[in-house]
Amino acid sequence: MSKQIPERVWLITGASTGFGREMAEQLLARGAKVVATARKPEQLAEFGSQYPDTALILPLDVMDQAAVDSAVKAALDRFGGVDVLVNNAGYGVSGAIEEVSEAEFMPMFETNVFGLLRVTRALLPQFRERKRGNIVNISSIGGLIGTPGVGYYNASKFAVNGLSEALAGEMAPLGVHVTVVEPGPFRTDFLGRSATIAAHQIEEYKQSAGKSREYFETQAGKQAGDPVKAVEAILAAVEAPEPPRHLVLGKQAYERMQARLELWSKDLATWKDTTLGADYDSQGEAR
After folding, report:
1. pLDDT-derived band at 282, boundaries 50, 70, 90
2. What is the rounded average pLDDT of the residues 109-115?
3. Helix, strand or coil for residue 182?
């Protein structure tokens, strides 16, 4: 916690809870300048009091473009630029695809996907002009592997992965690194205040999507992942000479991803002839 880091300006969304709060706390303690944003900035007041010269506390609802523009302007006016953007704001919805209503899943997409895009796009001009910096998008192992009962959350985080990979290719020639963080279960409030459970429940999905709902309701505070260690890992990745494109965090996430890679490799090998046979023949004519 006491290790100093290079002087940079960090802008963190969703900084009042979870990884965002832990990151703001660690960074400020190490001497970094931090723009900590949240829908309820009063929950971050202690940072502003303790670090008046290096902490800027701002209200920000990522679903509101005007609020995004205002926060970005305030950050640039105060510190002159942002070196590291951390898109942390987000939450999950539990329920089968048929169970979750549009009123329940659309705000999640507005936060997890479109909110992330609003903040990122607002800061891309200054990243492009400065030709340096890091963009860190907090996704999930659920952005790489789908699970019954959290399909809408999976879809939002799969979207984050796709746009992050494209953005990484666009920004790499400009000297800007993009890292997608893929945590497994960590002991944050993700299963508590940061979760929504579908109001409508269908008996036939009890053995599939219902397992996810049960997990949300019983496992809060019991997750294996340590948020302090996760944030330390993210900071180390940002400071690395070559930051990773994807950073998987936690044993459960690592093992799930290893199993998924093995399954993909098996499917590719098993269906190789079928896959390669889908092209035109060597003369460019259909078979």
Report:
1. confident
2. 97
3. strand
Which tens digit of pLDDT belongs to each residue from 147-178? 999 999 999 999 999 999 999 999 999 999 99
Buried b (16+ CB within 10 A) or exposed e, 212-241: bbebbeeebeebebebeebbbbbbebbeee
User: Cβ atoms within 10 A of the Cβ of 164, count?
Assistant: 24
157 has catalytic annotation: yes
Q: Rounded to whole angstroms, how far apart are CA atoms 97 and 26? A: 38
- Pick the catalytic residue from 33, 152, 156, 157: 157
Question: pTM of the prediction?
Answer: 0.91
Which whole number is the average pLDDT over 15-44? 94
**211 tagged catalytic:** no
Q: Which of these is catalytic: 16, 94, 139, 212?
A: 139
The arithmetic mean of pLDDT across residues 71-99, rounded, is 96
Catalytic status, residue 153: yes
Q: What are the chain's domains?
A: 9-276 (3.40.50.720)
Contact between residue 179 and residue 245 where contact means Cβ atoms under 8 Å apart: yes
Q: Average pLDDT, whole number, for the chain?
A: 90
**Spatial distance between the Cα atoms of 194 and 282, rounded to a whole number of angstroms:** 54
Furthest-apart CA atoms within the chain: distance in Å: 72
- Please list, in sequence order, all residues whose beta carbon lies within 8 angstroms of the beta carbon of residue 271, skipping any fewer than 6 positions away: none
Residue closest to 142 by CA, chosen among 94, 177, 110, 176? 94
Q: What is the enclosing helix (H) or strand (E) of 267?
A: helix 251-270
CA–CA distance, 43 with 63 (Å, rounded to integer): 19
